[in-house]
Amino acid sequence: MGGPVCYQCAKRRCERKEIITEIVDTEIKYGRDLRIVQDEFQRPMAVAGLLTPDQLQGVFLNVEELAEKNRRFTQHLKSAIEVALDTGDDDLVGVHVGKMFLRAEEDMMAAFKSYCTRQVRSLKKYKTMGTEIYVTAFTGISIRPTGRHGEGTRAAQNLPEGVSNGEHDIEKNEPQLFPHGNPFNFA
Questions:
Q1: Of 86, 90, 118, 130, which sits with the fewest C-beta atoms within 10 Å of its C-beta?
Q2: C-alpha distances in angstroms, 91 versus 21, 22, 74, 98, 139?
């Protein structure tokens, strides 16, 4: 796009393109993380009946809404880059990420505000449920009851087939979904 540019301008264009690419990559990763929360935590817990619908809503808040807003925004970013590249704008000069964020701000901010203003309450609710729930890559949901005097919680005692009651704990060095620690362990 355009004619030759000086070294300094070419360098700035290259840096700008790298930043745009990093923003898109970050949005893609954020969306993937939200889908992991939904697919590996929220849905299995709902199917297994480990939490009531109200408890699930209280813990996971509006993660589905956040995932959908991220999907739409990421698609807009990717489309803008695709159009730029298709028209020969290899430096992405015509991709105005800031304007895209501003256009999406009202829609996205309402969802973020809803999540953030309820997150502390959600964390407290999670901590008072009496069950630590882990998801491992190969064993599905693994529950370690934390009730008084070692008795299991009702949810841990009534698990559907294929769901462990602690037989396959994270401490047994099985492959983990999150090898650097459970991001949902708020202790």
A1: 86
A2: 11, 14, 19, 16, 46
